[in-house]
Write a structure and sequence with these properties.
The structure holds 2 protein chains of 2 kinds.
Chain A: E1 3-12, E2 15-25, E3 30-34, H1 41-48, E4 56-61, E5 64-65, H2 71-77, E6 78-81, H3 93-98, H4 113-125, H5 141-154, E7 159-163, H6 171-183, E8 187-191, H7 195-201, E9 204-209, E10 212-217, H8 219-222, H9 225-232, E11 235-240, E12 247-252
Parallel strand pairs in A: 3-8, 3-9, 6-7, 7-8
Antiparallel strand pairs in A: 1-2, 1-4, 4-5, 9-10, 11-12
Helix pairs in contact in A: 4-5
Chain B: H1 2-34, H2 42-54, H3 62-96, H4 109-123, H5 132-153, H6 158-183, H7 186-196, H8 205-224, H9 226-231, H10 236-241, H11 246-268, H12 274-286, H13 290-314, H14 323-345
Helix pairs in contact in B: 1-3, 1-13, 2-3, 3-8, 3-11, 3-12, 3-13, 4-5, 4-6, 4-7, 4-11, 5-6, 5-11, 8-11, 12-13, 12-14, 13-14
The chains are: A alpha/beta, B mainly alpha.
Chain lengths: ~250, ~350
């Protein structure tokens, strides 16, 4: 068991944003988080890596409760790719990936041979080794997202959390990024909007509605006509794709 | 293997740069001591310093010895430390608050220092107990605490901190103006204005003994946090997910910059421009990584302010310009050139 949430709730002010969520993610599997805007996907990801504090409930990584881990221990274990994080500072792609080594380095220790190797490996895993010296500002949206994933991989995490990593990307880059993530072999939790892409690339899906999990399981099990109607308020026709054998959803406009 | 060789070469290149920077700083201090209404050869300066520090017995006129040791050398050292502190604070704040306009005075520190100084000078608060700089220091700390309190209440995001700093500055500037308008005679008002624009005229050795250690302390604390400063580049959540204890780092670094700024402002008044521009110039030269940026900024700030001080003393015969006027008049065109070139290469 890689990630386990037990009855987790979170509130901002008086509004309950995550409400009694329990779920588990097996080691090496990809869990997709689905749900309408404001259903608590981003908050749930931030709770798992302790960027926000739970109001109640327990989150475990492996055997450890996240609240018992030191910040830097946590960062060596779990990495988080935010939605569209950008900067005005002039940095190269390599500089950004190097940030991923932060939790592995001492206060003043220079970048060691091991760190360099991890940075090189991360860059090549996302296919950006040829662009390492390019400035952040000159990279396209898809390239920036790949650099962020490389930065996360340079942390050598056991678990990787991604918040809508394909947002604002064209379809080629969406497929490329999700394909890359599903082949990493790292336990992943991804917040996604596109149901067809979620069905194609995730091992498990969890659907959130107003902060609660309303369905969890394999894509075939979760993505039914009734659930899509209930949660997203749209009519859909669901079939098994003859091309890739996963669910294929077509929307019906009334 | 080639990686190790490359690392060693880089190390030597860095060592050479640091030595060059120290030499340039020493040269600027030498020039600052030599240049003035009475010009003194560099060799005489070296002899005077050697007489005091190493007990050598070169024959020197007592006037020269006095000018060098009691006036110009202390002044140059304070200028170097003040420039270094302000520039370093600017670099740290720009990284921490992720805002290229952040600078030491955005925390309201200089406005508070002015109010504190004016309270002592014109209203006679703590008369006999508090010196002008003591009042300025207390004013600076009070202003910083007020801004920090406002910012914490407003949620502590970087935009909020800057907005609270702007609000705090406006408040303290208004209080200063109110006191000056209602209480000062013409001569006092002139004195206050001179102080508000920055002046190195009054500094002596006790100031050196305070500002040099504070600058060194600030540099050490900042250097200790280079990884954290780098990690803030994509925001506080990104920094936290890289293992940075965001709140603690913010408190420590904001407190350190406030200490450096309050010390400098209470000594030499509000010298604008250095904290804003030197970090940008340094970033243009050595890049955005803080392990290089912080030393470059510190040396750059020190060298720049010594140069500005020399200019302020010689540009108009028989008169010393407020140093804040010089930093802005000469710094702005230089900064415009840097921005323009950066735009072309980007």
């Amino acid at each position: 068991m890689s990630i386990r949430l037990e009855d987790v709730s979170f509130a901002a002010g008086n509004s309950l944003i995550v409400n009694g969520v329990s779920l588990t993610v097996q080691t090496g599997k990809v869990l997709g988080l689905l749900g309408p805007n404001g259903s608590g996907k981003s908050s749930l990801l931030r709770l798992i890596c302790r960027l926000r504090k739970v109001r109640s409930g327990i989150i475990r990584l492996g055997e450890s409760d996240v609240t018992t881990l030191a910040r830097s221990d946590l960062a060596r274990r779990i990495a988080f790719v935010e939605q569209q994080a950008t900067t005005e500072t002039q940095l190269t792609a390599r500089d950004v990936v190097r940030l991923g080594r932060t939790p592995h380095r001492g206060v003043l220790s220079p970048l060691g041979v091991k760190d360099d190797a991890a940075v090189d490996e991360a860059l090549s895993r996302v296919g950006m080794e040829g662009r390492a010296t390019q400035l952040w500002q000159t990279l396209s949206g898809g390239e920036r997202q790949r650099v962020h994933i490389a930065r996360a991989l340079a942390q050598s995490p056991a678990e990787l959390l991604l918040d809508e990593p394909t947002n604002h990307l064209d379809i080629q880059h969406q497929l490329e990024i999700l394909g890359l993530i599903s082949r990493l072999g790292v336990t992943c939790v991804i917040a996604l909007h596109d149901l067809n892409l979620a069905a194609m690339f995730c091992d498990q899906l969890a659907v959130l509605q107003q902060g609660s999990v309303v369905a969890i399981g394999t894509p075939q099990h979760v993505l039914t006509r009734d659930l899509i109607g209930d949660v997203f308020g749209v009519q859909a026709h669901v079939e098994t794709s003859p091309i890739h054998g996963r669910c294929n959803i077509q929307y019906i406009i009334a | 293997m080639s990686g190790a060789v490359l690392k060693q070469q880089q190390w030597w290149a860095h060592a050479a740069l640091v030595i060059a920077a120290f030499s340039l700083l020493a040269l600027m201090i030498g020039l600052a001591v030599s240049i003035g209404e009475i010009s003194i050869p560099l060799a005489t300066t070296a002899k005077a310093v050697s007489n005091r520090l190493f007990g050598s017995v070169f024959e020197l006129s007592r006037i020269h010895q006095g000018i060098i040791w009691d006036y110009r050398l202390s002044r140059a050292l304070v200028a170097a430390s003040a420039g270094a502190s302000l520039a370093l604070s600017g670099a740290v704040l720009q990284a921490l608050l992720r805002n290229p306009l952040a600078e030491p005075y955005v925390l309201g520190v200089s406005a508070g220092a002015s109010t504190g100084a004016v309270c002592v000078m014109l209203l006679g608060f703590g008369y006999g107990v508090l010196s002008l700089s003591g009042g300025a220091f207390i004013g600076a700390v009070v202003a910083f605490l007020l801004v920090a309190f406002l910012a914490a209440g407003a949620g502590g995001s970087s935009e909020r901190i800057i907005l609270c700093g702007v609000a705090g500055s406006q408040l303290f500037n208004a209080v200063t103006s109110y006191i000056v308008t209602t209480s000062a005679n013409a001569e006092q008002a002139r004195g206050v204005m001179f102080w508000l624009l920055g002046s190195l005229s009054g500094v002596r050795w006790p100031d050196v003994y305070l500002v040099v250690p504070v600058t060194m302390f600030g540099f050490a604390v900042s250097l200790f946090h280079v990884r954290s400063l780098d990690a803030f580049v994509f925001g506080t959540d990104a920094a936290a997910s890289l293992g940075i204890a965001v709140r603690r780092v913010q408190v420590v670094l904001l407190g350190t910059t406030a200490l450096m700024t309050a010390t400098v402002v209470s000594m030499v008044g509000a010298i604008g421009f250095v904290g804003l521009v030197i970090p940008h110039a340094a970033r243009f030269l050595v890049g955005a990584r803080h392990d290089r940026l912080l030393p470059a900024t510190m040396f750059g700030g020190g060298i720049f302010l010594i140069g500005a001080d020399i200019i302020s003393r010689i540009i108009i015969p028989q008169q010393v310009l407020p140093i804040g006027v010089v930093t802005a008049l000469f710094g702005t065109p230089a900064f415009a050139v840097i921005l323009y070139r950066a735009r072309r290469t980007a």
